[in-house]
Design brief:
The structure holds two protein chains of two kinds. By secondary structure, chain A is mainly alpha-helical. Chain A has a single domain, classed as Orthogonal Bundle (MetI-like fold). In chain A, helix 1 packs across helix 13. The radius of gyration of chain A is 23 Å and the shape is globular. The relative contact order of chain A is 0.13. Chain B is mostly helical. Chain B is globular and about 75 Å long. The chains are: A mainly alpha, B mainly alpha. At the A-B interface, helix 1, helix 4, helix 5, helix 6 and helix 7 of A face helix 2, helix 3, helix 5, helix 6 and helix 7 of B.
C-alpha cells in the first residue's frame, strides 16, 4: 500500500514535469493547425476545424526552404569540420607528448566562455574584409568559435577513457601517428563522435547572434534569423510563425528522441569534466 | 600527462605493464612536432575567430571608431568614463544581474526537483527524460516566439487560463508592461534551460553510492534527514558546475531578449549583450560598444574565477571530510 502510494506520487510529479516542459510546444502545434479567424478567439482551446494552410503558406509563399537549406549546409559543414579538427586536437592532447598541454586545454575552455558579443564587431570587420559577408563560409568559420572548444573538450574526455592496448598494437605494427588516429582511434571513438557531433550540430542550427550580424539576405541567412524576421515580412502571422517553429524544431526533436541517451551523456559528461 | 600515464599503468595487469611502458616510452621518444601539427588547425582557427577579435575589441575600446565616419583617434579611457555616467548602461548592467541571478536560482531549484524525480525508477522514465530534453533542443529564437504568443495580451493562452482559474480578472500585457516583462523573460529562460541543469544534477545523483543510503537507513535517519545531510552535500559539486555554466550563459543572454522583447518596454529588459549590440550596429558607435563588451568580458571572467574559487574550496572541504 505504501509502495503504491509512493509510486503514484512519483508518477504524478513526473507528469507535472512533462506538462511543464512540453505544454508550450504543444500549444504551438495547436496554434499552427488553427484557422486564422480561430486564432483570435479563446475558448475553444482546441480548434473545431484543423487546417494545414499555414504549412502550405510557408512552402508556397515564402523562401523558407532556402533558410532550411542554408541552416542544414552550415550546421553539417561545421559539425564535420569540428569533428575532424577537434578529434585530431583531442587525440594530440590525450596521447601525444606535447608541452603546455594544460595551457592549451585552458585556452579551449576559456574560448568556450567568451561572450559572443565581445568578438562580434572585429569578426564582422574580418569577414567583410575577407569577402565572406553573407556567405556560408563566413558563418561556418565563425561557428568554429564555439564548435571547436565543445568538440575538443568532449572528445578529450572520451579519449582518456579508451585503453591504450589497441593503439599500442597498431604502433607495433608500424602505423604512423596519423594512420593510428584515423584507422584505430576514430572507430573506437565513434560513440564520442556522435555525441560531440550532435551537440555541435544543435548549437550551430540554433545560433543567432553571428547569423544575424554576418548575413543580410536569403543567400546565407539561417532559420533563427528567418524566424526572428517573420513579423517584418508579413505583420505578426501567428499561425505561420507557429507552423515554422514546428517545422524547424522537428528535426531537433527527432534527434532528441533517437539519441536521447547519447545527448544526456554528452551534457552530463561535459559537466563532470568541468 | 603524468596523471594519465599513472592511471593507465596502474590499471593494467603485470604482463601488459612492460609493453605499456615501452609504448609510452616510444611516444615520448618521438618528437612532439606531430602533436603540435595535429593541434595547429584548431588553434589557428581559434586565434582567428576568438583571440584576435577579443584583443581587437579591447583595442577598439580605447579609440573613437564609428561605422559612420572615417578615421579615428586615441581617446584613452574616455569610453569607459562615459559608460559610468550612461544611465541606460547602468540599467542594462542591473538587468543582466537580475536576469542571471533569478533565472539561475529558479533553474537550480527546479532542476534539482526534476533530477530527483528522474533518479527514481518508474515506468516511462526514458520518455520523461526525452520530453525534458525537448526545450533544451529548441532554438532559443523559436522558444522566444512561442512564449511571445503565450504571453500575448489579447489572444495569449496564459491570460485566458489565469482568468479562467480566477487568478486575474483582466488581461495583462505581460511583455508590454515594465513591471512584468522581465519576469516573463526570466520565466521563458527557466523553461528552456532547466533541463540542462536537471541533467547535470542527475549525473551527480547517479554518482552517489547507494551504500551510503543503506548506512543512513541503519542509523535510523529519515528520508528528509538523508536528503539534507547526505544527498544535498554530496550534490554540491555538480550543482556548482551547473550553476557556473548556466550563469555564464545567462550573463551573455542575447537571442531571447532580442526576439522576445527587443529590450523593451522602456529598457526594462535591456541586458548588456543587447545594449552593446544596439550601440554597435544600430547607433554605429563601434568603440563605445567595444568598451561595453570588454567590460562584459571582464565581468564574465571575474564571475567564472570567483565561482571556480568557491568550487575549489568546497571540493577541498569534501576531500578533507573523507
Amino acid at each position: 500500500m505504501k509502495g503504491m502510494l509512493k509510486r503514484s506520487t512519483i508518477v504524478i510529479l513526473a507528469s507535472f514535469i512533462v506538462v511543464f516542459q512540453v505544454a508550450p510546444f504543444f500549444w504551438q502545434i495547436i496554434t499552427s493547425l488553427k484557422m486564422d479567424k480561430d486564432l483570435s478567439s479563446l475558448p475553444p482551446i482546441f480548434p473545431k476545424e484543423v487546417t494545414w494552410l499555414h504549412y502550405q503558406n510557408i512552402f508556397q509563399n515564402t523562401d523558407f526552404y532556402k533558410y532550411i537549406l542554408n541552416s542544414s549546409i552550415i550546421a553539417v559543414v561545421v559539425t564535420l569540420l569540428c569533428l575532424f579538427l577537434g578529434s585530431l586536437a583531442a587525440y594530440s592532447l590525450a596521447r601525444l607528448p606535447i608541452k603546455g598541454k594544460g595551457l592549451i586545454l585552458l585556452l579551449f575552455l576559456s574560448t568556450s566562455m567568451f561572450p559572443q558579443i565581445a568578438v562580434v564587431t572585429p569578426l564582422y570587420n574580418l569577414i567583410k574584409q575577407l569577402g565572406l559577408y553573407n556567405t556560408h563560409t563566413g558563418l561556418v568559420l565563425s561557428y568554429m568559435l564555439f564548435g571547436l572548444p565543445l568538440s575538443v573538450l568532449l572528445l578529450y574526455g572520451f579519449f582518456r577513457n579508451i585503453p591504450y592496448e589497441i593503439e599500442e598494437a597498431a604502433y607495433m605494427d608500424g602505423c604512423g601517428y596519423f594512420r593510428t588516429y584515423w584507422q584505430v582511434c576514430l572507430p573506437l571513438m565513434a560513440p564520442g563522435l556522435v555525441t560531440a557531433g550532435l551537440l555541435v550540430f544543435i548549437s550551430s542550427w540554433n545560433e543567432f547572434l553571428f547569423a544575424i550580424t554576418f548575413t543580410n539576405n536569403i543567400d546565407a541567412q539561417t532559420i533563427p534569423v528567418g524566424i526572428a524576421m517573420l513579423p517584418q515580412m508579413f505583420f505578426v502571422p501567428w499561425g505561420d510563425t507557429a507552423a515554422t517553429s514546428i517545422l524547424v524544431t522537428l528535426p531537433l526533436i527527432l534527434l532528441v528522441l533517437i539519441f536521447e541517451k547519447k545527448l544526456t551523456k554528452g551534457i552530463m559528461g561535459g559537466a563532470v569534466k568541468g | 600527462m603524468e596523471k594519465v600515464e599513472k592511471q593507465v599503468i596502474g590499471s593494467t595487469n603485470a604482463p601488459l605493464l612492460l609493453a605499456k611502458k615501452k609504448y609510452v616510452k616510444k611516444i615520448f621518444s618521438k618528437p612532439m612536432m606531430i602533436g603540435y601539427i595535429f593541434l595547429l588547425p584548431s588553434l589557428l582557427i581559434l586565434c582567428i575567430v576568438g583571440i584576435y577579435p577579443l584583443i581587437q575589441t579591447i583595442y577598439l575600446s580605447f579609440f573613437d571608431v564609428s561605422f559612420t565616419k572615417q578615421g579615428s583617434s586615441f581617446v584613452g579611457l574616455e569610453n569607459y568614463r562615459n559608460l559610468l555616467s550612461d544611465i541606460w548602461f547602468k540599467v542594462a548592467y542591473k538587468n543582466t544581474w537580475i536576469f542571471t541571478v533569478l533565472s539561475v536560482l529558479l533553474e537550480t531549484i527546479l532542476g534539482l526537483f526534476i533530477a530527483l524525480v528522474l533518479n527514481k525508477n518508474f515506468k516511462g522514465r526514458g520518455l520523461v527524460r526525452a520530453c525534458v530534453l525537448i526545450p533544451w533542443a529548441i532554438p532559443t529564437v523559436v522558444s522566444a516566439r512561442m512564449w511571445e504568443w503565450i504571453f500575448n495580451a489579447e489572444y495569449g493562452i496564459l491570460n485566458f487560463l489565469l482568468m479562467k482559474v480566477g487568478i486575474i480578472d483582466a488581461n495583462i500585457n505581460w511583455l508590454g508592461e515594465t513591471s512584468t516583462a522581465m519576469s516573463a523573460a526570466i520565466f521563458s529562460d527557466v523553461w528552456k534551460t532547466t533541463p540542462f541543469m536537471a541533467l547535470i544534477i542527475l549525473a551527480g545523483l547517479q554518482g552517489i553510492s547507494s551504500s551510503l543510503y543503506e548506512a543512513a537507513d541503519i542509523d535510523g535517519a529519515n528520508k528528509w534527514k538523508q536528503f539534507f545531510y547526505l544527498t544535498l552535500p554530496l550534490l554540491v559539486p555538480s550543482i556548482m558546475i551547473a550553476v557556473l555554466l548556466r550563469s555564464l550563459d545567462a550573463f551573455r543572454v542575447f537571442d531571447l531578449i532580442f526576439v522576445l522583447t527587443g529590450g523593451g518596454p522602456a529598457n526594462s529588459t535591456e541586458v548588456l549583450s543587447s545594449y552593446a549590440y544596439k550601440t554597435t550596429f544600430s547607433a554605429a558607435q563601434v568603440s563605445y560598444g567595444a568598451a561595453m563588451s570588454s567590460l562584459m568580458a571582464v565581468s564574465v571572467f571575474i564571475l567564472a574565477m570567483v565561482m571556480l574559487f568557491f568550487m575549489n574550496q568546497s571540493s577541498k572541504k569534501i576531500e578533507g571530510g573523507k
